[in-house]
Amino acid sequence: MSNQKTWFITGASKGLGLVMVNQLLKQGYNVVATSRKLTDLTGAVGSNAANFLPLAVDITSEASVKEAIDATINTFGHIDVVVNNAGYGMVGGLEEVSNAEARANFDVNVFGSLNVIREAMPYLRGQGSGHIFNIASIGGFNGNFPGWGIYCATKFAVHGFTESLAAEAKPFGVNVTVVSPGYFRTSFLDSGSLIVPKNPNDAYQNVRDSQAAHQNEINGNQPGDPEKGVAAIIATANESNPPLHLFLGQDAYDMAYVKMDAVKSDLETWKELSTSTGF
Amino acid sequence: MDSKKVWFITGASKGLGLSLVKQLLEAGQYVAGTSRNPAELHNAVGENPNFLPLQVDLANEASVSAAIKTTVDTFKSIDVVVNNAGYGIGGSIEELTDKETRDSFDINVFGTLNVVRHVLPYMRAQLSGHIINISSIAGIAPATGWAVYGATKFAVAGLTEVLAADVKAFGIKVTLVAPGAFRTSFLTPDSLSIAANSIDAYKDVHETHARYLKMNGTQIGDPEKAAKAMIAVVDEPNPPLYLLLGSDAYSRAITKVENMVNEFRKWEGLTKSTDYQTV
User: Fold this and answer.
1) N or C: which terminal CB in chain A sees fewer CB atoms within 10 Å?
2) One of A151, A204, A253, A257 is an active-site residue; which one?
3) Does residue A151 have an active-site annotation?
4) Residue A101 host element (H or E)
């Protein structure tokens, strides 16, 4: 049993997840970190501290997730902050991405997070406190990313269930935040991380252009500093009234505004037709 | 309608789908309508030489692909696709099982993706077409107790935004329709799915469900007018990406946009704190 808050972070062997683990350990929190492979995690973090619990978890398996949450409670006595960070990007036109490829992306980005929430909620409800962070993306708010249809769909889905979750968890004193990072300088766009369809179609030149721009021009030049992104999330966890939506980065901020303006413009232009349908 | 078009409508045996089918047939259009249940479809629509009833399991890609091929074989083209099939699912995330969650994504998201994937080769070849994806106001501003439903409809919004960008070059138009409450069978026990595993602690969620079920039969929206609005949009040279239907949907969307912009501003400092320093 420890009085320090216990953080539970999925996809912790790289990217924002890994940076978060390191910052939290330095600050003395209890940290449970999950990854598919334990060696990836222990190699990346390199800590044998008593407040660090690395776990091999397949978040697409509900049983594996349940085991991890149980291990968290057994080790630290409580679970306070859950960060659904695991996820990967995919770029391909909707016609090119197979049913299996689309579902695989949802398995991790959507159903994995839902598995974690489903298994963590009984503990958070029981203690009457907690904070769930779901890491979405600015692509989960603004779909103006040609070729990123499935990825955006998964991240839009995260936005959708997080908004409802905030309402359903509120009576239990559990805070909920959906985080929408812009471009951060992580391995997200590396060829080992970013998935492309097995059967690309030559007709989708715009999708190939988008893929090339992301892999060759944007990768390595992302404006977002992962250390600062993580610091912002940790700061949010310490707020008494944290935001439901947290956008990270000037780019995310600008794209979020553009999206709201576009929807507003459609709403206003088509108001007469929209409101013509009542009895 | 300005001219004869071939429409492909999923979930055509009831609700907005059925209203669309009937109005289109009356206007002399060609209509392929899908349903799981061919008898229900036949009873609902009746005999009409311009109507092609199709038994389709939308979660099954082969079934979808065969239906689209039959449509093109019968009517020689496919001009407007309405991804209308879908159902509501209520429950907190904790109450809904992985299976219940995935079942709703199977129809509301993966079914739509199956249709899009198989219709695009024809639309790209003819360099025209209009894909209408029926989301929901819950796909923009979700409510307590409908987290998974909201997630499926947010996902539809996400994939639709990107699809619009991906296929613009082929002359294909894309519209997301977000209806409010319409007087269909959506809220009847036959259509609506509620978590089998009810957890007493989720009082607010259960009260919301009771309130919605009580609304059944008194919804403000007229399905016939919704169908008329969708048909009107297809005749537009510059149709909207977002079409809200219903004064309820319109106000919820406007409120959502305003709340989001307020939240952007409130947390602007933290959002913009994460970029690398530019020299």
Assistant:
1) N
2) A151
3) yes
4) helix A99-106
* CB contact A218 to B (< 8 Å): no
The domain in which residue A113 lies consists of 6-274
Q: How far apart are CA A231 and CA A16, in angstroms?
A: 10
> Full-prediction pTM beyond 0.90?
yes
Distance CA B94, CA B218 (A): 30
A252/A192 Cα distance (integer angstroms)? 24
pLDDT tens, position by position, B216-269: 999 999 999 999 999 999 999 999 999 999 999 999 999 999 999 999 999 999
Residue in A closest to B158 by C-alpha: A153
Say if A174 falls within a structural domain. Answer: yes
pLDDT in tens, A142-185: 999 999 999 999 999 999 999 999 999 999 999 999 999 999 99
A–B CB contacts, 8 A cutoff, strictly below: 278
In order, the DSSP letters of A26-49 are: HTT-EEEEEES-HHHHHHHH----
Please check the confidence at residue B84 and state whether its pLDDT lies above 80: yes
Nearest CB to A223; choose among B246, B270, B276: B276
Average pLDDT taken over every residue of chain B: 95
Residues of B taking part in catalysis: 135, 149, 153
Count H helices and E strands in chain B, helices first. Answer: 10, 9
Strand partners, B275: A224
Q: Do A94 and B113 touch (CB under 8 A)?
A: yes
Structural domains counted in chain A: 1
Please tell me whether residue A239 adopts helix, strand or coil conformation. coil
CA atoms within 13 A on the CB side of B179: 28
Q: What are the sequence ranges of the domains in chain B? A: 6-246
CATH architecture of B6-246: 3-Layer(aba) Sandwich (3.40)
In a domain, residue A72? The reply is yes
* Whether A164 contacts B146, CB under 8 Å: yes
Domain containing A242 — which CATH number?
Answer: 3.40.50.720
Burial B51-81 (b: 16+ CB within 10 A, else e): bbbbebbbbebebbbebbeebbeebebbbbb
- Closest by CA position to B92, among listed B188, B203, B181: B203
- CB crowding A45-80: b at 16 or more within 10 Å, else e: bebeeebbbbbbbbbbebebbbbbbeebeebbebbb
Which helix or strand (DSSP H or E) is residue A267 part of?
Answer: helix A250-269
Q: Is residue A1 part of a domain?
A: no
CB within 8 Å: A94 and B162: yes
Residues 118-157 of A with CB under 8 A from B: 118, 121-122, 125, 139-140, 142-150, 152-157
B222: which chain A residues are within 8 Å (Cβ-Cβ)?
Answer: 277-279
Rounded CA separation B196/B77 (Å): 43
> CA torsion A253→A254→A256→A260, rounded to 10°?
140
Whether chain B has a CB inside 8 Å of the CB on A269: the answer is yes
